[in-house]
Q: What sequence folds into this?
């Protein structure tokens, strides 16, 4: 009952309330990030969602689009804007995903939506992560996120899918808030990037 009906109702209701409550902050961030990124406050990228259906994830844009002499984007740590660094470190860049939740493309809690390029290299067990809506936060995120291997991340994702329930979601929400307040292992630092997943690592 919770997985099929209640979870989606809670996602919609909570996301709507949160967007209304934080709308002043939302607007201020749009203005500052638009100034920092030449009129582009949002980062939009196509990602696979539930049943591998592709959707456009929305985040606040924390890096500019500066390129080197060959036309390639500069390394991440060279492209963070001052305001973008603050937004990333405080996890405020995740706020626009509440819109994805309202639209039914994401859930507040679930496996994080990864890039489309990974779809062909998942094994049959790892593909189970797409049996539910992807989330803004999830079991892997509160158990190490980028400090753990891809194999471990997917184990956490699949375990969540197979054990999804209300109390587990409440636990993940509580741990997420704790990590955000402590600024602990929530977002990539300027010097840390995730290793590309090729199906073997």
A:
């Amino acid at each position: 009952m919770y997985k099929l009906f209640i979870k989606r109702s809670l996602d919609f209701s909570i996301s709507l309330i949160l967007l209304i409550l934080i709308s002043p902050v939302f607007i201020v961030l749009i203005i500052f990030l638009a100034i920092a990124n030449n009129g582009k406050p949002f980062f939009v990228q196509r990602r696979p969602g539930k049943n591998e259906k592709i959707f456009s994830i929305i985040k606040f844009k924390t890096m500019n689009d500066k390129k080197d002499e060959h036309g390639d984007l500069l390394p991440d740590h060279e492209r963070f804007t001052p305001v973008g660094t603050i937004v990333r470190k405080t996890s405020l860049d995740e706020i626009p995903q509440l819109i994805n939740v309202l639209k039914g493309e994401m859930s507040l809690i679930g496996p994080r939506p990864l890039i489309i390029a990974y779809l062909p290299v998942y094994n049959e067990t790892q593909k189970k992560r797409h049996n539910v809506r992807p989330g803004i936060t999830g079991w892997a995120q509160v158990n190490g996120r980028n400090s753990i291997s891809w194999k471990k991340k997917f184990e956490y994702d699949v375990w969540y899918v197979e054990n999804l329930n209300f109390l587990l979601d409440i636990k993940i929400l509580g741990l997420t808030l704790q990590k955000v307040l402590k600024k602990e292992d929530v977002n990539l630092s300027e010097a840390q990037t995730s290793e590309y997943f090729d199906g073997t690592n």
Q: What stands out?
A: Residues 186-193 have pLDDT under 50 and may be disordered. The beta strands are 42-48, 54-60, 107-109, 135-137. The chain has seven helices and four strands.
